[in-house]
Design brief:
Strands 6-5-2-1-7-8 form a six-stranded mixed beta sheet, covered by helices on one side. Strands 3-4 form a two-stranded antiparallel ribbon. With 164 residues, it is of the alpha/beta class. It has helices at residues 2-5, 34-38, 121-141; strands at 44-50, 70-74, 87-89, 93-94, 108-110, 113-116, 146-151, 158-163. 18% of the residues lie in helices and 22% in strands.
Length: 164
Amino acid sequence: ASLLTGRYQTRSGIFPGVFYPGSIGGLPLNETTIAEVLKPLGYATAAVGKWHLGYGANGIFLPTKQGFDQYLGIPYSHDQGPCHNLTCFPPDVKCFGWCDIGVVTVPLVHNDSIKQQPVNFLDLERAYRDFATNFIITSAKKKQPFFLYYPSHGVPWQVLLIRV
């Protein structure tokens, strides 16, 4: 939330927790994201990876409602769904920790629709790579500046890629 809005997360109500599969809230729609600032300037905008800023009823808090033209990713952490014997990281690293057994399995969302549920984590990074590459190539062919936001689900880092 802080990275996308430029504001401390406590000011937007995101801190001190995260959004879970059953959460009804999300990043407030009145918060201005960097994508919402760049889009009117002619930028193509896309998010790929873990959103974790809320799903809400009918996907109201997804990236496509927060200034992004396109989105491919999971709406919350990979460990927030049933994970008994689930492979979280290729080729065979199993999930451990506090998994919410009995909660809806983690979906893969494309724009505003669930593309796959449960998501196949073994193919996820390839899907992310293909989506991001396609987005960049399409923007470059159009000679359009772009903003790509990539918060990985597997490691605690995020990538902001802006081409002007």
